Amino acid sequence: MSQMKYLIEVEKPKPAIDGRPSIGPVYRSIFAKDGFPPPIQGLDSCWDIFRLSVERNPDNRMLGRRETVNGKAGKYVWLTYKEVYDTVVKVGNSLRTRGFEQGAKCGIYGANCSEWIISMEACNAHGLYCVPLYDTLGAGAVEFIICHSEISVAFVEEKKLPEVLKTFPSTTKYLKTIVSFGKVTPNLREEFEKHGVEIFSWDEFSLLGENQHFDLPVKKKSDISTIMYTSGTTGDPKGVMISNKSIISLIAGVQRLLENVNEELSPKDVYLSYLPLAHIFDRVIEELFILHGASIGFWRGDVKLIIEDIGELKPSIFCAVPRVLDRIYAGLTQRLDQGGLLKRTLFNIAYSRKYGNMQKGHKHSEASPICDRFVFNKVKEGLGGNVRLILSGAAPLATHVEAFLRVVACAHVLQGYGLTETCAGTFVSLPNELSMLGTVGPPVPNVDVCLESVPEMGYDALSTTPRGEICVRGDPLFSGYYKRDDLTNEVMIDGWFHTGDIGEWQSDGSLKIIDRKKNIFKLSQGEYVAVENLENIYGLVSSIDMIWVYGNSFESFLVAVANPNKLALERWANENGIEGDFDSLCEDKRAKDYLLGELNKIAKEKKLKGFEFIKAIHLDPLPFDMERDLITPTYKKKRPQLLKYYQSVIDSMYNNAKKP
C-alpha cells in the first residue's frame, strides 16, 4: 500500500521467519513525524497532574453535582480546585493515620461522584495503588479482586456496603478499613466490626486527617498508579497494572493530537462524568480535564435522566459508548418518523444538502450553516447547546449512526479504539474527515503500530490490503498483569503488545477493526462473550448435533445456527402430532421454539448470564461440512466462512428478533 496520508513509516515490513508470521510496516501518526511529544514539564506522576492544576487554577470549578431542592434536581453546585485539594489533603492524612502507606492497595467501589475523585487523588498523593471496582460488580467479583490485589482499605458507595459485607469472611484477611462515601447505619457498623473491619462515614474519616501532617513520598514515573481489572472472559478478571508514565505519556499524545486539529482543551471546557471511572477510558479523559483546570459534572446515575443532566450541565465534550449514541439516534429518528410529512421532507432535504457538502470536503460547521440554524439546532440544544466534540469508544459505533450524528449534532463525532492495556487511547478518527466513517482513525501520536499476519485466519499484513493482528508499542503500554507473568508474556512479545484484534489499514492511514483473533467478542452493551465455551455448553443438548453461536459488537444478544439431531427432532414431532419430513421440520417455528427452549434449559442449569442466552435460532438440516468450507478436516468451525455463508440468515434473525 502506498504512503498513507496520516501515517509515516518508521520500520520496514518483515517476512515470516522461523515459524513467526510476517509483520507489516511499523507506522506512527503524521503528527509525530519529528518524534513523540516530550514529557509535559513538571509531570512525574498522576498526583502532579492535579497538584499543578490546583496551583494554576485554584478558583476554577472542578467537581459538580446537582443539588436537590424540594425533592427535585436543581442546578449544579461546584467545588473549586482549591476546595477539592483541601479535602484530598485531609483524606490522605487520614489514610496515613490508619497506617496505609506507599504501595498499599486501596479499592474504590461505587458510581462516579466527587468522593470517587477525591479518594483517587488521595491515593495518588501518597503513592497507594488505586484499585477501582465497577459499581455493577456483584459480591463474587468484588471478593476475587479484593483478595487477588490484597486490598487493605476501600472507599465504598454507601449503597454498596452490603455487597462488600457478602465477601466476608474471606476478604477480611486483607481488608482492614472501609470508608463510606456517605453515612454508616448502626446495624452495618456492628456487622463490619464483628468481622474485625473498622468502618467510617465520609465525614468521620475526613476528621481523622485534620491537624495532621505527613510528608508525601517521592513518586516516580515507573511507579504503578492503578490496577484495573478487566472483565473476565474465559476465566478470572486480569489486573492490568498502569504506571504514572503510561497515563502521563498518553495525555501528552492526546494533547499533541488536539493541538494539530485545533481542538485544544481549555479551563472553560465542561465534561459530563457518567462512564465508569473504573474503566480506563473515562479515567484518562478526566485526568486530561483536570490537567487543563476544566470542569467535571457528575450525572445522577439514572440513564433515563441523562438528557436532563446534559441540558443542565451543558458539556462541551461528550464521551459515550455506542449504546448511548444508539439510543440518541433511535430517539431522534423516532421523533422524526412521528412528525408530519412536511417536517420529514424538510429534514431530509437539509440532511442531504449538508451531508453532500461534507462529502465534498467541507467542514461540518461550514457545510450548511442555514440547515444547522433552522433544522439541526434542536439536536444541538438537546445535547446542552455547547457540545463541540463527541467521542465514542469501548466498542464499534455503527457507521449509519456515526454518519447521522456527524450531520445533525453540529459537532465533531469521532470514534476511538484502545484497550486497558494500552491506556485507552491508541487510535482516534479525525475531525472533518468523512472518509474515516466506520474506522477508528490513525494512531495517536505517542505509539508505534503494526499489523502481524494471522495465516490461519487468512489475514496477510503484507498484502495490497493489509490485514492482521493489531500490535502496539510505546510508553502508554501497561506494566503487566498483576501476579500473572505468564499471561503478560503471552501478549507482550519483543516490546509489542498483541491486542488480539484484527485490523485493516485504509488508504488514508485510518484503521478499521474487522475481526477478533481469539473467539471472544464484545456485545453492544460491553459484555464479553467467550463463544467456544458457550458452544461447549449448548452442545450438551442431545437434540442438537452441532451449533454455531454468533454475536457482534453492534448487537446486544446472541443468535445461533444449529444442526438438529434427525432422530431426536422427528421423535419430538411425532410425540406432538406434527407432520412433515426433516427438512420441513427444520423450517417449522414450533421446532425452533422447542430447541430454543432446550438451549435455555441448559443455560439456566449451567447458570449462564442473561446476555449468554441465545435469543433466536436457525435450523439447518444439512450438517456443517468441508464441502462448503464451513469446517476443517478436524471438524473445527471456520467462523469467518460460517458468517459469510449464513449472513442473510443472521441478518434475518436479528431483524425478526427486534420486531415487537
Brief rundown of the structure:
Helix content is 37%, strand content 21%.
Which characteristics define this entry?
GMP Synthetase, Chain A, domain 3; LC-FACS_euk; single chain; 5-stranded antiparallel beta sheet; Luciferase, domain 3; AMP-dep_synth/lig_dom; Rossmann fold; 21 helices; alpha/beta; 660 residues
Question: What is the fold's blueprint, element by element?
Answer:
Blueprint: E1 7-11, E2 26-29, H1 46-56, E3 61-69, E4 72-80, H2 81-97, E5 105-109, H3 114-126, E6 129-133, H4 139-149, E7 153-156, H5 161-165, E8 177-180, H6 186-194, E9 198-200, H7 202-208, E10 224-229, E11 239-243, H8 244-260, E12 270-273, H9 280-291, E13 295-298, H10 306-313, E14 317-320, H11 322-338, H12 341-359, H13 364-367, H14 369-382, E15 389-392, H15 399-408, E16 412-417, E17 427-428, E18 448-452, E19 467-473, H16 485-491, E20 492-493, E21 496-505, E22 511-516, E23 520-522, E24 528-530, H17 531-538, E25 544-550, E26 558-564, H18 566-575, H19 582-587, H20 589-605, E27 614-619, H21 639-658
Parallel strand pairs: 3-13, 5-6, 5-7, 7-8, 8-9, 12-13, 14-15, 15-16, 26-27
Antiparallel strand pairs: 1-2, 3-4, 10-11, 16-17, 18-19, 19-21, 20-21, 21-22, 23-24, 25-26
EC number: 6.2.1.3
GO molecular function, one term: long-chain fatty acid-CoA ligase activity
Keywords: ATP-binding, Fatty acid metabolism, Ligase, Lipid metabolism, Nucleotide-binding
